[in-house]
Specification:
rod-shaped, 2 helices, about 10% helix, little secondary structure
Length: about 280
């Protein structure tokens, strides 16, 4: 219903305004609309009224639209729209929209949208969207999106997306994506993707990709351990590694079919026995 103004006439007591009954009807109708919108029709709600200019705290509210400003508080519910401002509080719900600002708080839910800013808080949920900024917090969930910046935090989940920057934290989960930057942390999970930069940390998992293709291991100490990829025979080896790269080392339990276990290395043109 549109607002109903009470006619007061052109001048006082000129007889052109609404009569008392009509004016009272308009007044009642206006109040009924307000009480219905802010209450149950007869009683106003005790909830705080959200205004555009005041700084207020929203509790138990579901926001499905788009955030265009900065969020400095905590978001405990799900965000299904886009966030174009910065988020400095914690995100404990799932974020399915895109975040174009920086996320400095912790994300405990899944972040499935794209983030074009930096993520400096910890992400304990899954990060399935792309991040074009840096990730400096710890990632305990699985990362399936691409990260074009640096990853300085630890990754305890699986890293299946591609990282074009440097990884200075430790990766204890499996790394199946490609890393084109340097890895200075430890890789304790299985590495089936490619690392084209230098690996200066320890590698404890099974290496199935080219790790590194252009870099070198510089910190394999006597106390460290490298577990090679193990294959039952050369057929299984060739099936798993269709395009080997020079410098790959594997362990074949049946050797070349003669029943003798062998360490084998690829010299760029063929597999050769190392023992």
């Amino acid at each position: 219903m549109a607002y109903q103004a009470i006619g007061r006439g052109t001048s006082a007591n000129d007889g052109t305004g609404d009569d008392l009954r009509t004016g009272a009807g308009k007044l009642n109708a206006n109040f009924v609309e307000v009480y219905t919108y802010l209450g149950d029709g007869s009683t106003l709600s005790t909830d705080a009224v959200v205004t555009e200019t005041a700084t207020q705290t929203l509790t138990n509210k579901t926001v499905t639209g788009t955030f265009t400003g900065n969020i400095t508080g905590d978001v405990t519910g799900d965000v299904t729209g886009n966030v174009t401002g910065n988020v400095t509080g914690d995100l404990t719900g799932d974020v399915t929209g895109n975040v174009t600002g920086n996320v400095t708080g912790n994300v405990t839910g899944d972040l499935t949208g794209d983030v074009t800013g930096d993520v400096t808080g910890n992400v304990t949920g899954n990060l399935t969207g792309d991040v074009t900024g840096n990730v400096t917090g710890d990632l305990t969930g699985n990362v399936t999106g691409d990260i074009t910046g640096d990853v300085t935090g630890d990754v305890t989940g699986n890293l299946t997306g591609n990282v074009t920057g440097d990884v200075t934290g430790n990766v204890t989960g499996d790394l199946t994506g490609d890393v084109t930057g340097n890895v200075t942390g430890d890789l304790t999970g299985d590495v089936t993707g490619n690392v084209t930069g230098n690996v200066t940390g320890n590698v404890d998992g099974i290496v199935g990709g080219t790790t590194p293709a252009a870099g070198t291991f510089t910190d394999l100490t006597a106390s460290g351990a490298v577990q090679l990829a193990v294959y039952a025979d050369t057929t299984a080896r060739d099936t798993a590694i269709a395009t080997p790269a020079a410098g790959m080392i594997v362990f074949v339990t049946d050797g070349d079919g003669g029943g003798t276990a062998q360490f084998q290395g690829y010299d760029g043109s063929a597999w050769v026995a190392l023992n």
